[in-house]
Design a protein that fits this description.
Layout lengths: L1 E2 L12 H19 L9 H25 L2 H24 L5 H5 L4 H21 L4 H22 L4 H32 L25 E2 L1
Antiparallel strand pairs: 1-2
Helix pairs in contact: 1-2, 1-3, 1-7, 2-3, 3-5, 5-6, 6-7
Subcellular location: Membrane
Membrane topology: Multi-pass membrane protein
Organism: Desulfosporosinus nitroreducens
């Protein structure tokens, strides 16, 4: 008897623009709070938009990317999607939305540990981003700076006020570069050609050759 491995290819559209849109919009909204464009203490609405834009949108896009075999897109959008879900629950806890008991036992410094952990993750992803395009490289480098400064603010390392401002402007810059990337990716998929230049992979680390196609096995 022979058993043949059958691989089902995903034939749907590229979800990357959709996922990056979620990241760009939540960074745009969150940075408005950090930079005092809106009330820094009023994080109630940030809970909603962090969960929806930063979380659900990116996670949906990540799931589709994994089906398409896009490991970079699925990993990045999925990881940062769950980060924003976690931030939504964190803000809800610190605001007392999940009960005064939860708020009373919350230690904001634990967010600093989260930021350090995501910084480590982002450094690895930044290396891989050099094989994608220029906007993604810039976004990942800015994300590294963002997590570093957020960690410093959480642990009160160094000039906290300065780091808080750097974090705000870095997050704002992420949103702007992200919006550009959304336009570039969307236009390319919609028109079938490059409208906004995205740049080519730098080829710093060569990828291994693709594995040979699966063969029929006999048992």
């Amino acid at each position: 008897m022979s058993v043949q491995e059958v691989k089902v290819a995903y034939t749907g559209a590229d979800p990357t623009a959709f996922g990056v849109m979620g990241l760009s919009l939540i960074c745009f909204v969150a940075s408005s709070s950090k930079l005092s464009f809106t009330d820094p203490k009023a994080t109630g609405l940030l809970v909603i938009w962090a969960a929806l834009l930063g979380g659900i949108v990116q996670i949906i896009a990540a799931m589709i990317d994994f089906k398409k075999g896009n490991v970079f897109g699925g990993t990045v959008l999925g990881a940062y999607g769950f980060f924003w879900v976690g931030m939504a629950f964190s803000w809800a806890t610190l605001n007392g939305m999940l009960g005064e008991g939860m708020k009373a036992v919350a230690d904001p410094k634990q967010l600093g540990v989260v930021f350090v952990g995501y910084l480590i993750f982002s450094l690895f992803i930044t290396i891989a981003s050099f094989e994608t395009n220029v906007p993604f490289i810039i976004i990942l480098l800015l994300i590294d700076v963002l997590f570093f400064t957020l960690a410093c603010v959480s642990f009160k390392w160094g000039p906290v006020a300065l780091y808080a401002q750097i974090a705000g402007w870095t997050e704002f810059a992420i949103s702007l570069v992200g919006f550009y990337a959304v336009g570039g990716i969307f236009f390319k998929n919609f028109y079938g050609r490059d409208i906004l230049p995205m740049g080519a992979p730098m080829g710093l680390i060569k990828k291994a050759a693709p594995a040979p196609a699966a063969r029929t096995k006999s048992v």
